[in-house]
Amino acid sequence: MPEDTEAPGEETGEGTPAAAELTHTTDSGEVRMVDVGAKPDTSRRAVARGEIRLTPSTVAAVKADEVGKGDVLATARIGAVQAVKHTWETIPMCHQIPITNVDTDFAVGDDRIELTVAVETTGKTGCEMEALEGVTTGLNVVWDMVKAAEKDADGQYPDTRISGVEVLDKAKRRLDE
Fold it and tell me: Is 35 a catalytic residue?
């Protein structure tokens, strides 16, 4: 099996496919953190993306840096990085991992902003949850920054939505390679 993919059952260390076993519960159904202590440290990277749909006028205001709350993308970038660093505090049973790098990339279209977050770590467990947290929080920050422009007359958000949040890639490699 290539070194950059998770082996079946790797998270459990018991040789059974991870999909066939709930790794965060005991046989009696109690929730537990997975013990990764025996796993070797590896270099790991995960990339996630998502998008927020906005009205074209709101996107134009973001592009022109004319949103009253400030620089939307700079603020969203900070929010995304902060979320990556604090994932272990918001997702139960998620390990606290040493983040070695976070890259954020925004693609601004006519009616949407796409955010891609790449996270790197060296450790015993992956960083895809951190990448997902970065994307969702970054997009939530965009929403928060532009919500006044996105509200309709009834105070609703008929054209605003976050979608397409997914892990694009995850990889690992042994440190001795």
Answer: no
